[in-house]
Design brief:
Length: 638
């Protein structure tokens, strides 16, 4: 069967699928957004699904029809091209694989215990909304109930654009084996390690993909060096165990790039389709990676049109690239259409979101290349680490480790730029997306957080490894060249490890936000919210409230309700129950909760149990305890 026939069948199947959805799927007129609004109802996820998937099917069907009509041009016959993938001796392949396996094993062994660290705010919100569900008190009956996150929530709830959909689906599957019995006092209704397992596996897989990508491009020695460098990057280590989709973004970015390289090397349809599938998974996980997807397709087109290698097959190969893009676009538009109105509603709300400024720009660039802030983000926090602080402590010591890393980085850029093959595509694919994101955020003052550019950080260890290995090029493949390459690589690995060691140690040994640590200070015996003894302690949260670990706390997050703390204090003194206040981001909270702080600041009323530093400014938590909490004797009978 010819490629043209296969593509026509695929396009026809897609067209039939989208057409069937338009005919037999939920009717957007009766069950969509407009119908809910006309009836005066709250627009729910199912309404977004009905309207969004119908619109997505309409657009997807149009794209499938276009692909079918254009198939004679897209599937031109092409002369076979020689596979330009470098061949390696079996011994070198085995050595590279052995280094990769060892690096992955060490990384897993030194980080698996972090799977059970506290969830921080963004992880917790995603868990409650899209993966597991939440415990809530019914407004009319005051009965406590558990609302499970459905698969519709997992795939289509985007009221908060914190849903990294493909990750959420994987985490929901991973978490499905977790069960809690009401009789188990120390059980939790969720499991941190189960939630984080998909990220952990994707992160470990990314180390292997770094090696595979460089080996496929002909940089076998650099691949051996790049894998341990990747495992040393503090920012990579942070997102290795974060219960969000960023590790999967790194994984699919590398996978899509690897498949694109293979498609350009041999031109076979299977690699173009694999590239399309990996890009689909990338965007379904994290739509912000559209910058990366566009750069991948654009860079592929540049290689096809300007490389002499494709002189005779240029139009045919371009047709395969466009075909891959059309199929991917049809299905990603279909599955993401229900999320777009929700995203628009979110952006239309007046939210206090972080925007780019010179300090944040410097920190973001520093985090990208070293995983460490440029300036201290909190001089009073013992976990705050910054490169500028290292410079102030000892400029000479800083330069000893920074100069080799910087030289290797620059040498890696030069090496790729001068490479005669299309290995240079790593530069635009991995550097243009973060640069474009920073530029847009600066010009338009859109919301920006440094982790928005996390997906392409593997370029840093790859460039450093390429540069370190570059020192041996003048010696060719002789034994001396290998020794020089190993020596320079070990020097650079040591330098990068030393430069980033402080942040790496902090990341490995401390949670982003110590929510569970705070929770265990006042609920060490009974942690299960379904257990009848959970009410033996009164807890209050009013800012950055810890309602994931302690869903039965009293939420006073509305400043208009902060007077209720007096009633809760009276209840504690009447019943003799301990009362604790657990909150975060104190400086911001003081601007809005002056009545609560007038009590917390009184040493005769409250005492500090602990101040638990976090790894970001807003994530340091305090736990306060009411004094005294002795049970009052009942009044004597008359």
């Amino acid at each position: 069967m010819s490629a043209l026939t296969k593509f026509r069948i695929a396009s026809l199947v897609a067209l039939i699928f989208f057409g069937a959805w338009l005919i037999f799927g939920p009717d957007p007129v009766e069950a969509g957004i407009a119908a809910a609004e006309a009836a005066g109802k709250k627009v729910k996820v199912e309404h977004y699904i009905a309207s969004g998937l119908w619109q997505g099917a309409l657009i997807g069907g149009g794209i499938a029809l276009l692909a079918l009509v254009a198939s004679p041009w897209l599937c031109r016959p092409a002369q076979p091209i020689n596979d330009s993938k470098p061949s390696l001796p079996r011994s070198q392949k085995r050595f590279t694989i052995a280094v990769g396996v060892l690096t992955i094993a060490i990384t897993a062994a030194t980080n698996y215990q972090r799977l059970s660290q506290s969830l921080w705010d963004d992880e917790a919100k995603a868990m409650r909304m899209f993966i597991v569900g939440k415990l809530y008190q019914h407004s009319k009956t005051n009965e406590w109930k558990f609302k499970e996150a459905t698969w519709s929530d997992t795939f289509f709830n985007y009221r908060l654009p914190n849903n990294h959909i493909l990750f959420s689906a994987a985490a929901k599957l991973s978490h499905s084996g977790h069960n809690v019995k009401p009789t188990e006092p120390d059980a939790m209704y969720f499991s941190e390690w189960r939630l984080r397992l998909p990220s952990f596996l994707a992160g470990l897989g990314s180390i292997a993909l770094v090696g595979a990508l460089l080996t496929t491009l002909g940089f076998q020695r650099a691949a051996v060096f790049a894998m341990p460098l990747t495992a040393l990057h503090p920012w990579f280590l942070r997102y290795l165990v974060e219960a969000r989709g960023y590790a999967m973004v790194i994984f699919f970015t590398l996978l899509a790039t690897l498949f694109l390289v293979r498609a350009l090397q041999c031109g076979r349809w299977r690699w173009w389709l694999a590239f399309s599938a990996a890009t689909f998974c990338l965007l379904w996980t994290y739509p912000v990676a559209l910058y990366t997807a566009v750069t991948l397709f654009g860079t592929g087109a540049l290689v096809l049109w300007f490389s002499p290698r494709f002189r005779g097959t240029r139009l045919a190969m371009t047709g395969r690239l466009v075909s891959a893009g059309l199929l991917m676009s049809a299905f990603i538009i279909f599955v993401m259409s229900p999320t777009l109105p929700q995203l628009q509603n979110y952006l239309a709300e007046d939210r206090d979101l972080q925007t780019l400024n010179p300090r944040l720009t410097a920190d973001s660039i520093s985090l990208f290349f070293t995983g460490t802030h440029w300036r201290l983000w909190d001089s009073g926090n013992p976990l705050s680490v910054a490169l500028k602080d290292d410079i102030n402590d000892s400029l000479a010591a800083f330069l000893v480790v920074a100069i080799p890393v910087a030289l290797a980085l620059l040498a890696g850029i030069v090496r790729l730029a001068l490479k005669r093959t299309h290995a240079w595509l790593l530069l635009p694919v991995f550097l243009i997306p973060p640069a474009a994101f920073l530029a847009q955020a600066a010009v338009q003052q859109t919301a920006f957080y440094p982790w928005y550019i996390i997906g392409t950080i593997p370029i840093v260890p790859m460039l450093i490894a390429l540069g370190a290995d570059y020192a041996a090029r003048p010696l060719g493949n002789r034994r001396a060249g290998g020794l020089v390459a190993i020596g320079s690589a070990l020097l650079v690995i040591w330098a990068f490890s030393s430069l980033t060691s402080a942040q790496r140690n902090v990341t490995r040994n401390h949670p982003i936000e110590p929510t569970r640590d705070a929770f265990e200070l006042y609920r060490s015996e009974v942690t299960n919210p379904f257990h009848p003894d959970i009410d033996q302690v009164i807890t209050i949260g009013f800012h950055q409230e810890n309602n994931t670990y302690d869903p039965k706390l009293h939420r006073l997050d509305d400043p208009q309700q902060q007077h209720r703390i007096h009633d809760l204090i009276a209840e504690a003194r009447e019943t003799g129950k301990p009362l604790y206040v657990d909150f975060g981001q104190e400086a911001y909270a003081r601007l809005h909760f002056d009545e609560i702080f007038s009590l917390l600041d009184d040493p005769q009323t409250f005492e500090l149990v602990a101040e638990l530093p976090g790894l970001e400014l807003q994530n340091t938590r305090k736990v306060m305890r009411l004094l005294p909490t002795q049970r009052h004797a009942p009044p004597a009978a008359p």
